[in-house]
Amino acid sequence: MQILRVENVSKVYGSKKSSKQYMALKNISFDVNEGEFIGVMGPSGSGKTTLLNILGSIDKPTTGRLIMDHRDITGLSKDQLAVHRAKKIGFIFQDYNLLETMTLKENIILPLALAGYKTRVMENKLNSIAEDLGIKAILDKYPYEVSGGEQQRAAACRALITNPKLILADEPTGNLDSKSGKDLLELLTFINREYKATILMVTHDVFAASYCHKIMFIRDGEIYNELYAGDDKKQFFDSIIDVLSVLGGERI
Amino acid sequence: MIKLSTLAVRNIKRNFKRYVMYFFSLCFSVFTAYTFFALMENELVSNAFTYDDRYRALLLAFGIIIMVFVMFFLISSNNSFIKARKKEISTYSLFGMTNRKIGRLLFMETMIVGLTALALGIGIGIFFSKLIAMILLDISLASFTGDIEFSIAFKAIYITGIIFLAIFCVMGLSGLRVINKFELVDLFKADKVSEGNSRGSITALALSLLLIGTGYYLASIKNYFLVVAAIPILVLVISGTYLFFWGGLPRVLHLIKKNKGRHYRDVNLISISMFTHKIKTIASTMATIAVLSAVATTAIATGFTLYSSIEKNTYDTNGYDMYFYGGQEEVLDYIYKAFEKHNVRIIDEYTTQRYKCSPEVEPIVVEGRELTFGQDNYFRVYSESEYNRLISVSRSQLRPVYIKPGEAMFGYPGVINDLEDTIVGKLLSFSSDLTIEITSVTQKDILTFGAFYTLVLNDNDFNILNHSGDIIATDRNGDPLDRVTVFKYENPLKSGDLNADFIQILDGKTGSYRTAYNHYNESLETFGLICFIGFFMSGVFILMTASLLYFKQIMAAEEEQHQYKMLRKIGLSTEIEKRVITKRLFPVFLIPLLIGIIHSVFAMKAADTMIFSNMLPVDNSYIVVLSFSAVMYAAYALVYGIFYFITKGQYSRIVK
Ligand SMILES: Nc1ncnc2c1ncn2[C@@H]1O[C@H](COP(=O)(O)OP(=O)(O)O)[C@@H](O)[C@H]1O
Ligand SMILES: [Mg+2]
Q1: Residue A78: its chain B contacts at CB < 8 A?
Q2: What is the residue range of B86's domain?
Q3: Count of domains in chain A?
Q4: What is the CATH number of the domain that holds A38?
Q5: In Å, what is the CA distance from B104 to each residue of B18, B77, B173?
Q6: Nearest CA to ligand 1 atom 18
Q7: Would you tell me which of A87, A169, B267, B619 could form a disulfide with B580, CB atoms 3.0–4.6 Å apart?
Q8: How do residues B4-19 score in pLDDT, each as one tens digit?
């Protein structure tokens, strides 16, 4: 089932009058179906973050439509978008974006608290997710007291706790060492499988990309190519490298 | 290579928003300093006060308090300002600027801003000096009609300039100390490590409450022991307040956080944790604000209560617009002429004989001492109808009394507290076996006319005792007692010229005389000044404390900016954001204010015991005092509230 449709989305940075206009996305269209685990790859500056921000309604497209759950969200007001984000989308960022003033536990339940859930309900949800994601022991610590990998797990917990339709992750492994990065990817796979969450992940790491079912390659604000994972993981890995070498640009 | 001064000017421009509030409060403190020095210099002002020395001493004491406070405020805001610019300063250091040079740069900035404020503050001071002197004289002197000339007080400019330049130098040095403490590695360290989080301690909480509670308890004791206890009370309450903010409040917040149902509700999670995160860095400021608010509100409440009750107090001690005893034959004609001359209407007048008596009184023991009645401590005695006639001429709010045969009302001066229980029921025996029981007492005593105690008897008893010779109208030498004359006339407190004539007429020619006008004006001078100083001091305190809070919250806003950005990403709507900001800032302003006011309520209790209970002729003077104080608390809270809204507006703009 389709949960997201992107129709002719363009994004222009800079004011209309100024000469310094920059078109970061050019007429992009694609669909996302429920349960997919999609990777987005491309050279630095190709527009990946811009795309993800628009999908997450953090940013507005200059032209084009975005339909989520059969609802056009491009016309919504700022506050309506905030509610939409809180209900339907979970975010995982490269630099975790946890509030350092709160314990991990408080960070995770924050979206629920804002939505006005009862304490009991919040704790139940928290307990089961924290257990699944293996951070139960450190829930009462502050972000600066735990490792980056653990912070990112907590961020994943926070993204997941509202049962969002769509999880958007912008280079989630970017700041992690390879061991923590691998753990997180396995976690995302687990979330995708067990929680039936649809995931869209920006990455420039081939190893990370190889966990996805499908890769979209972006260059200069346009979709350049798509790749689907087959049964053979090794072969998928190699074809990603092939596309990237054609795509050019720096890998980081 | 750009010049240091160019860099300094550029920095000020860039940090303009942070400097603005600081600049205004600096201006205001310069203005205050100048104004006070100018007032002290002003001959007309000091000549207008009869109690010249006392007036000078008060202003001087006030000036010193203000200056010490201004110094604390300036140094502390300067230091937190430098800390907020840590990154910028470390960058200079990274590119090879020595600490001394950075210190010079910051000193230059301080000087540019400081000298501008100095000039502006003095300018404003000169501009308003006439107005302020007029206000001071107007509220302190009912009779003041002169015109104060506009003048520039050069000595005041000189002193103000020297003092503030000295303060700026101290600021520069203290800033250098802060810079020297910076480590270059701090620049590369993540900003995220908490500096301000604290769980507090239950011991600190309990101890702080105990200290404050003991202070409160001592302050509420209705006893003259209070005078001795004043300093210990201050020490207890102030140390308790600081301890509360350092260790107690964090504990309370921690406990709130433990209460999940409450903590997890709505935006509490965000606001409370942001607040606790900053608690350590703001605890001292909050405690200082609480203490200063207490001082300021107590000062204005005391001043206002005193000032508002001057008129009432005048008639409670003086009773009549004018009275004298003795010499009626000689002066009365002149008195009437004076009334005519000044065209003042007499509302009522009465002349009556003074009587005295010295009955045997059952022993009365008050606080271990026995009251003695004898030749010297005789009673001034009235019949019921005489008493009622006299008080009808008085402006004090006494009610007519009805005394049954065999009973008496006992009157004594207000300074003795709680006599009522011991005295009611005591018997008075006279030579003519009439025994009279004291059945009521009054503390309002405006009929003594030279005696210490009064008695009011039933008309019939009075006549019997007069016949029997118990009540007499002669002194111990057998000479007749003077008659007393009381007057009630129009506009008594405003008729200065008439009053001057009375003094001329009465002085030396009568046994004794009093006018309400004199009493009123003497009180006005002292209390008006106290009131004036109270308001001025509160103005300075509130402006500085509030701008210090503003300052800290603006710094906090800059640090918290990215958190709001993050929250918006995960779906914080503008409406919820407003609630977060309100809940984040409101406690920072409210808690110190509230504690300050509670302190003040107890301080007023002590003030009531020491001053007001003797001054205010009502049964529960504390209620009256509190209601006057409440007006001032509300005014203070209002001004403080304006700062809250300014801060909130600026905070919201920064985190947008
Ligand atoms: N707020 C902005 N204003 C102007 N240009 C921007 C802005 N954000 C991104 N860009 C430009 O848009 C292009 C795409 O950026 P981005 O989506 O961040 O790329 P990436 O694929 O590296 O995530 C870049 O050239 C970047 O410079
Ligand atoms: Mg990016």
Answers
A1: 573-574
A2: 1-192
A3: 1
A4: 3.40.50.300
A5: 20, 18, 10
A6: A49
A7: B267
A8: 788 888 888 877 777 7
